[in-house]
Amino acid sequence: MYQTTIKKPVELVGIGLHKGSPVKLKLEPLSSNSGIVFYRSDVDVAIPLLPQNVVDTKMATVIGKDGHVISTIEHLLSAIYAYGIDNLKVIVDADEVPVMDGSSASFCMLLDEAGIEEQDQPKKVMRIKKDIIVQEGEKYVKLSPSPDLKYDFRIKFPHPVIQNQDYVLEFTKESYKNEISRARTFGFLHEVQYLRSKGLALGGSLENAIVLDDKKVLNPEGLRFTDEFVRHKILDAIGDMSLIGMNFVGNYEALAGSHDLNHKLTLELLKNPENYEVIELVGEKTAALEKAYA
């Protein structure tokens, strides 16, 4: 298996979740060993996708450099990561990635339009060698060694529509597209009202999020999956884990995980080189991953 980028530049325009203003997003190919690089065209600042460039994880994953930030990157990264893309330039003309419909489906369609191109350098992946866990109270996120890639997520919300949900994704690109990519972000009406009072979530609507009051879903079309909430948490986790800089082989497990816990997990993983090994995919080692990213 070799590293990949996209065949041609592609772009779209969508609304930013927090400012409510149009944002132009453009994806461009990058050469081998470049990684994922974000670029703010309005201020001429490039921000490589690295854990040390994460500046906020309260409501979304936010990266920054020299006082400039790009917010809500996790849905786009989730799609990029699920497609196994190693090298890509992500250009935005504002401080956030457009939210689209609150899922990663639009970004998957954009990547399908761009096409995937194999490059000339071997693909590098990270193999998890030890159990790594980050825990706060009963909440935790965990990585463990495994020959394949699996996401196992549980959530518990004291809300009649959500309650306890558990989902296990046996990861392949196709299972991601079919089971995860369409799951939308969600929030509660009282939270939306509070955020708007603070000048945030101005672009949020029933068009790009599931919104719940105390008893029910307010979106007239209802849910896309009965367990859409936990599926979206997996979508987020896949995007957040891309901060390690490459695809990994191992199992991810979470109970009530969050952007913040995921970020702490990537830092804990990378802190000790004994936790992982970086391998170049050549020969017979590639079978499982070739199937995953076919």
Set down the secondary structure blueprint.
Layout: E1 2-6, E2 10-15, E3 22-29, E4 36-40, E5 45-48, E6 54-56, E7 62-65, E8 68-70, H1 74-82, E9 88-92, H2 105-114, E10 116-122, E11 124-128, E12 132-136, E13 139-144, E14 149-157, E15 163-170, H3 173-179, E16 186-188, H4 189-197, E17 210-212, H5 228-241, E18 248-255, H6 259-271, E19 276-280, H7 287-292
Parallel strand pairs: 4-9, 11-18, 14-18, 16-17
Antiparallel strand pairs: 1-10, 2-3, 3-9, 4-5, 6-7, 7-8, 11-19, 12-13, 13-18, 14-15
**Contiguous uncertain segments of 5+ residues:** none
Major β-sheet profile: 7 strands, mixed
Figure out the total of helices.
Answer: 7
Distance between the termini: 11 Å
Binned, the helix content reads: 10-25%
Radius of gyration: 18 Å
Assess the beta-strand content as a share of residues.
Answer: 25-35%
What is the strand tally?
19
What structural class do helix, strand and pairing data support?
alpha+beta
Mean pLDDT: 93
| Overall morphology | globular
H and E order: EEEEEEEEHEHEEEEEEHEHEHEHEH
Jot down its keywords.
23% helix; 5-stranded mixed beta sheet; 294 residues; alpha+beta; globular; 19 strands; 7-stranded mixed beta sheet; 35% strand
Structural write-up:
The mean pLDDT is 93. This protein has helices at 74-82, 105-114, 173-179, 189-197, 228-241, 259-271, 287-292; strands at residues 2-6, 10-15, 22-29, 36-40, 45-48, 54-56, 62-65, 68-70, 88-92, 116-122, 124-128, 132-136, 139-144, 149-157, 163-170, 186-188, 210-212, 248-255, 276-280. The protein is built from seven helices and 19 strands. The protein is an alpha+beta fold. The chain is globular and about 55 Å long. Strands 11, 12, 13, 14, 15, 18 and 19 form a seven-stranded mixed beta sheet that branches. It has a five-stranded mixed beta sheet with strand order 2-3-9-4-5, with helices on one face. Strand 16, helix 4 (189-197) and strand 17 form a beta-alpha-beta unit. Helix 1 packs across helix 5 and helix 5 (228-241) runs parallel beside helix 6.
